[in-house]
Design goal:
Structural class: alpha+beta
Shape: globular
Order of helices and strands: HHHHHEEEEEEEEE
Strand order of the largest sheet: 1-2-3-9-4-7
């Protein structure tokens, strides 16, 4: 994972250099201090998928280019075979498999997210981003925290919500949860 963080940081720094964007502007885009943003670029601090999406949207690149260093190429359709999408492990607990990474100018981001259980977890990192999100549990069980509510979702359950509300999740039990995450602005 550390190598992935460093590579993402290098791509962010490259984007900033090419477009001559000050550190302070990039930091403001994702709502962090300039010092914290510099740590992200150095690969010393993690960046969320939604923050990568904010940067990508604002500066006209794809989130996949920032995450995977690959630009989408397909314009008519894009097929992802089982288990073959672009994958990134954001932390030890979260793994994202992109299902739309090869399609040019896609209007939504679609991932299969795997969350490992953290039996002793008491703090849930909550995220916000523009638009709306749809989640459907494929395997396992999770607690989804939206605003001040906790919603338990099991295999086959789905939820559609306003993703400008703080939200985060935990796997419940001793096995990972896999769910489809579909975000649209």
């Amino acid at each position: 994972m550390d190598e992935q963080l460093k590579q993402i940081g290098e791509r962010l720094r490259g984007l900033r250099d090419v477009l001559d964007i000050p550190v302070s502007e990039m930091a403001e885009t994702i709502g962090v201090s300039a010092e914290k943003y510099e740590k992200i670029e150095k690969g010393e601090l993690d960046i969320t998928i939604s923050n990568l999406m904010k940067i990508a949207h604002k500066y006209g690149v794809s989130a996949e280019e920032l995450m995977f260093a690959e630009a989408p190429r397909m314009k008519s359709y894009f097929v992802v075979r089982k288990g073959q999408g672009m994958s990134v492990e954001r932390t030890k607990a979260y793994k994202y498999l992109s299902l739309v990474s090869g399609f040019v100018n896609h209007k939504a981001d679609v991932f299969i997210v795997t969350v490992e259980p953290k039996p002793e977890a008491h703090t849930v990192y909550k995220n916000i981003h523009k638009g709306q999100e749809f989640n459907m549990v494929l395997e396992g069980k999770m607690e989804l925290y939206i605003g001040g509510k906790t919603i338990v979702l099991e295999e086959g359950d789905s939820i559609y919500f306003d993703s400008t509300q703080p939200h985060g999740m935990l796997a419940v039990g001793n096995k990972p949860v896999r769910f489809l995450a579909f975000t649209v602005e």
